[in-house]
Amino acid sequence: PSRAGAQVDLPFVLGRQEYAESVRRLQQATATAAGLQAIFAPAQHTAEPTYREFLERLASAAQELGPAGGGRFSGAGGVCLCVLPPQARHTESACPTGVPLGTAGHALDKATGVLHLVDDLSAAKVYELVATFGDAALAAARVRAAQQAAINERLSRVQRVLRLRRISKEPLLSVRHLDEACRRLLERAEDLRHVVEGSTLRIGFANRLSQDGLCIEVAYNFED
Fold first, then answer.
1. If you average pLDDT over every residue of the chain, what do you get?
2. What is the per-residue pLDDT for 42?
3. DSSP assignment of 23-77, as one string?
4. pLDDT digits (tens, 9 = 90+) for 80-106
5. Which positions are tagged coiled coil (predicted)?
6. Which are the contacts of 117, defined by CB distance < 8 A and separation ≥ 6?
7. CA–CA separation, 214 and 224 (whole Å)
8. Which residue of 23, 38, 124, 169 shows the fewest CB atoms closer than 10 Å?
9. 153: Cβ–Cβ under 8 A, 6 or more apart, which residues?
10. Distance between CA 201 and CA 144 in Å, rounded?
11. Residue scoring higher pLDDT (207 or 97)
């Protein structure tokens, strides 16, 4: 019992964990059978019966139809599906990923190459969407991967030169602003190293200490 007198329903907790694990296995198996890199959903949706039903429908169709695109959309750098609840098609605010789907219930995120769709679509419709958007999704994913590799290289160089413990960036920081920040940090490396060596640095929009006190946040356009 807890201090409040409540008891943990252990069988319920274990049952939820087992269900979540079974959904993860079904996601992986379905993605493989359908010729996709991955299928996933926002955390709050993975426990919904409609999501599991979607996976089961698609897995069943994959047994008959085989991998989409003959398998060219599978593996690393392949097509990923983000599966959302049906209400995500009605308003942008209902879509937790921030990608507006419209009444059709699907959209390609051109920034990441992820195909977003709602879970009440038929398996045949999913195959149709992958065929329609698959090549564009692959192209977007390649661009995103190249951008991420370039970002990682820039951050790694700053980390080495300033002898940082760790470095990261705000997700909303543009590549242009990251370039500006890295250039400024490297130009001032001699002066900054004795201040930040061994620290965790995060490049963002303001100069401050993080709320937990574990990270130094620096604005991309910081001044001396």
1. 88
2. 85
3. HHHHHHHHHHHHT-SEEE--GGGTTSHHHHHHHHHHHHHHHHH-SGGGGTT-STT
4. 999 999 988 876 554 555 678 888 999
5. none
6. 81, 82, 83, 84, 101, 105, 106, 107, 126, 129
7. 22
8. 124
9. none
10. 23
11. 207
Please report where in the chains the tokens 């942008």 appear, as a residue.
92
In sequence order, which residues have a C-beta less than 8 Å from that of residue 163 and are 6 or more positions away? 193, 197, 198
Per domain, the residue ranges of the chain are 10-147, 163-219
200-204 vs 166-169, strand pairing mode:
parallel
> Which amino acid is it at 129?
L
User: How far apart are alpha carbons 80 and 142 in whole angstroms?
Assistant: 13
Enter the tokens of residue 131: 């065929």
| Max intra-chain CA distance, the chain | 64
Asked if the model's pLDDT at residue 1 lies above 50, the reply is no
The one-letter amino acid code at 26 reads L
Residues contacting 58, CB < 8 A, separation 6+: 30, 34, 39, 123, 126
Residue type, position 113, single letter = G
Beta bridge partner(s), residue 117 = 83, 106
Task: Give the distance from CA 108 to its chain's centroid.
Answer: 14
State residue 77's pLDDT score.
85
Residue type, 97: T
